């Protein structure tokens, strides 16, 4: 996956709590057998009506957001189904950073395996960022090495992320290759491990 | 004296391969379940890197999400067919056992695991599906993973995991007549919200859990993810052992006796402590119906649709308003006055033999309302065959239900079994998300008994008075 250390991009604000992965990518698009090409189906039922016409009242359809790369959402972002098609769709659409006050566990993991950085900020901070972005074209910089988020108008904050996903994202490592360096330990474990 | 441990810690300690300070641990996976939707990209990843499946015998595949439930010999949807053909080819190439279309054990992955005895106490179990928590009912540590993790487990039989925090969900008290495991878990999520379990593994304890059948425990563990917890489990006891004895992949004879001792010793020690505890009194739980677009938006069947103005917080008001708008509901009306057009009895939450028996027991010679389309989708070929032995298929058919072939079906509506836009469904499944059962479809989650009653009445009714 593509390494990520520092990223500056246009913010797309999505002020909804509990955005589930069924919304991020509806099931009719899960039938494909490749990892690519899911961006066109992102938030499909919100972006398009039953006749596949764009819904003009849905903000992501505004031309300016076609270049957005940072999504700021509500709490418990990515809840529900484990479908990795959700981060595949976000990444393919162009998002590299998702900011929310909390994430569902499986979605968080799936993001970090696909070069998307999930950033947890305080709810009042995400609300502030959403307000800023709803007002005007709004750019943020996220620095994964310094664990900082800032704009050029004085907003600056830090965030926590566990060392393991941080290291994986910064280096863009193939996790399986890393694990296989412990192959001897797995083999030794399997010798004594009882499974009925 | 050793420190008392929860079952979660016991399984964790037993399966950790390698620990690195301030990093996740490498956890060994005892059973990896596979289905057609979240595995193709993982197998493709193995192929691209020339990797193998490390333990094909600890891997088991089936087809469920995308399979048709009518005319199963012809799969009209070419893309669905390709996905199923791909799983078959992948299983052949990598030597993974498969209960695919036409196999007598085919069914919903979380139904067949327990049914075949693949699911056992103490096992670590993963699957590319968030409802993998179902298997926790047996005292297994079972959780859903993404496709990259599926590829990782296929290749290494391990996964990197941070040691989970433990959450005790203690449910005491006695369930009233007509109130089910489904109502317990809906009431629990309604009380504590859709993310109270995030970051935790739940252990369900208390006398109400002890009295539940394995099927009831599976229903509760299944919906742990709707509370944000990747895994939820129940310490094994005699009920667990009785369920497992004699199943296909469960050892027999002396080995069974040994396994039984091992399994029972996994139960949480009496003085073990948890990181957090929440409680629910089962005797206060009433039959539940969800009214909104997440499982916490739920009320007792005699309750009223909430009014956004009852909340002070503008975001909370907005959330209710948004859900009511999607669901096409007015505030302050009784939920049991809401007419429905569809009933779905099925899904990994409620499609086991016990669920179907309980659903059928409500019929009592009555007919499905002529305004309602009602379908019953058994969880597996085994459930279907057993139900037919008992004549349940005839009871459902005579009442006006359709009797379908096994699969996930209308729970996620991926296979074409969908609720049309704007129409309303009483469903025994697990998610009432927007669009879950079809674009603009409106889902109300209920127990199997409540679903049958709604099918007959044409609207929600209190199962306790529906005699």
Structure write-up:
The complex is a heterodimer of chains A (196) and B (467). Chain A has one domain: Alpha-Beta Barrel (Aconitase, domain 4), CATH 3.20.19.10. In chain A, strands 4-3-2-1-5-6-7 form a 7-stranded mixed sheet. The model of chain A has no long low-confidence stretch (mean pLDDT 96). Chain A is α/β, with parallel strands linked by helices. Chain A has helices at residues 21-24, 44-47, 85-93, 105-112, 123-135, 163-171, 175-180, 183-192, and strands at residues 6-14, 68-73, 97-100, 117-120, 139-143, 148-150, 156-158. Helices cover 32% and strands 17% of the residues of chain A. With 467 residues, chain B is an alpha/beta fold. Among the domains of chain B are: 8-161, Aconitase, domain 3 (2-Layer Sandwich), CATH 3.30.499; 290-457, Aconitase, domain 3. In chain B, 31% of the residues lie in helices and 16% in strands. Chain B has 15 helices and 19 strands. Chain B has helices at residues 7-15, 40-49, 78-94, 109-115, 147-156, 181-192, 207-210, 214-222, 238-244, 253-264, 314-327, 353-361, 381-389, 392-399, 448-457; strands spanning 16-18, 25-28, 31-34, 59-62, 98-99, 124-127, 141-144, 158-161, 165-172, 200-205, 231-233, 276-281, 288-290, 298-300, 342-345, 373-376, 402-403, 424-427, 442-445. A 5-stranded parallel sheet of chain B has the order 5-4-3-6-7, covered by helices on one side. A 5-stranded parallel sheet of chain B has the order 17-16-15-18-19. In chain B, β13 and β14 (298-300) form a beta hairpin. In chain B, α2 (40-49) packs across α5 (147-156) and α6 (181-192) runs parallel beside α8 (214-222). The longest helix of chain B has 17 residues, at 78-94. Chain B is globular. The interface between A and B is large, with 52 and 72 residues.
């Amino acid at each position: 996956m593509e390494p990520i250390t520092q990223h500056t991009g246009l913010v797309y604000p999505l002020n909804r709590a509990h955005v589930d992965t069924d919304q991020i990518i509806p099931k009719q698009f899960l039938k494909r057998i490749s990892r690519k090409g899911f961006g066109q189906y992102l938030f499909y039922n919100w972006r398009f009506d039953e006749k596949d016409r764009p819904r003009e009242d849905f903000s992501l359809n505004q031309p300016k957001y076609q270049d957005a790369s940072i999504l700021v959402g509500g709490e418990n972002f990515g809840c529900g189904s484990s479908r990795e098609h959700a981060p595949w769709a976000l990444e393919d659409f162009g998002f590299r950073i998702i900011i929310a006050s909390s994430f569902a566990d499986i979605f968080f993991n799936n993001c970090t395996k696909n070069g998307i950085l999930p950033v947890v900020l305080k709810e009042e901070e995400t609300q502030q960022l959403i307000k800023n972005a709803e007002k005007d074209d709004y750019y943020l910089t996220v620095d994964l090495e310094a664990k900082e988020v800032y704009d050029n108008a004085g907003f600056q904050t830090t965030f926590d992320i566990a060392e393991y996903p941080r290291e994986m994202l910064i280096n863009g490592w193939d996790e399986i290759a890393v694990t296989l360096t412990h192959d001897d330990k797995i083999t030794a474990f399997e010798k004594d491990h009882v499974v009925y | 004296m050793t420190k008392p441990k929860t079952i979660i810690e016991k399984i964790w300690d037993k399966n950790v391969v390698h620990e690195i300070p301030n990093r996740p641990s490498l956890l060994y996976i005892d059973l990896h379940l596979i289905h057609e939707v979240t595995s193709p990209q993982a197998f493709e990843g193995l192929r691209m890197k020339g990797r193998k499946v490390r333990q094909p015998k600890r891997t088991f595949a089936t087809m469920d999400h995308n399979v048709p439930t009518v005319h199963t010999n012809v799969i009209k949807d070419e893309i669905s067919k390709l996905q199923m053909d791909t799983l078959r080819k992948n299983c052949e190439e990598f030597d993974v056992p498969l209960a695919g279309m036409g196999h007598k054990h085919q069914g919903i992955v979380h139904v067949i695991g327990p049914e075949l005895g693949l699911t056992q106490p103490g096992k670590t179990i993963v699957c590319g599906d968030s409802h993998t928590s179902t298997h926790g009912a047996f005292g297994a540590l079972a959780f859903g993973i993404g496709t990259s993790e599926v590829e990782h487990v296929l290749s290494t039989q391990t996964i990197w995991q941070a040691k989970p925090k433990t959450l005790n969900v203690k449910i005491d008290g006695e369930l009233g007549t007509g109130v089910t495991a489904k109502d317990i878990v809906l009431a629990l999520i309604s009380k504590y919200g859709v993310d109270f379990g995030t970051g935790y593994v739940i252990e369900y304890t208390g006398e109400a859990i002890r009295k539940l059948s394995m099927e009831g425990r599976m229903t509760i563990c299944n919906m742990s993810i709707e509370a944000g917890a990747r895994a939820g489990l129940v310490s094994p006891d005699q009920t667990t052992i009785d369920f497992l004895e004699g199943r296909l992949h469960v050892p027999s004879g002396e080995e069974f006796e040994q396994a039984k001792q091992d399994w029972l010793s996994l139960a949480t020690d009496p003085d073990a402590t948890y990181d957090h505890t929440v409680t629910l009194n089962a005797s206060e739980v009433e039959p539940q119906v969800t009214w909104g677009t997440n499982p916490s938006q739920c009320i007792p069947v005699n309750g009223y649709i909430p009014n956004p103005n009852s909340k002070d917080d503008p975001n909370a008001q907005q959330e209710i308003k948004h859900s009511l708008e999607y669901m096409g509901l007015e505030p302050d009306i009784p939920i049991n006055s809401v007419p429905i057009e569809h009933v779905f009895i099925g899904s990994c939450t409620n499609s086991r033999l016990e669920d179907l028996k309980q659903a059928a027991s409500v019929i009592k010679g009555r007919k499905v309302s002529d305004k309602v389309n009602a379908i019953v989708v058994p969880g597996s070929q085994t459930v279907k065959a057993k139900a037919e032995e008992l004549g349940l298929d005839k009871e459902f058919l005579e009442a006006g239900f359709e009797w379908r072939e096994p699969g996930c079906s209308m729970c996620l509506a991926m296979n074409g079994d969908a609720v049309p836009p704007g129409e309303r469904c009483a469903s025994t499944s697990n998610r009432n998300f927007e669009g879950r059962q079809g674009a603009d479809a409106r889902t109300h989650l209920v127990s199997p008994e409540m679903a049958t009653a709604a099918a007959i009445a044409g609207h929600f009714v209190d199962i306790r008075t529906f005699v």
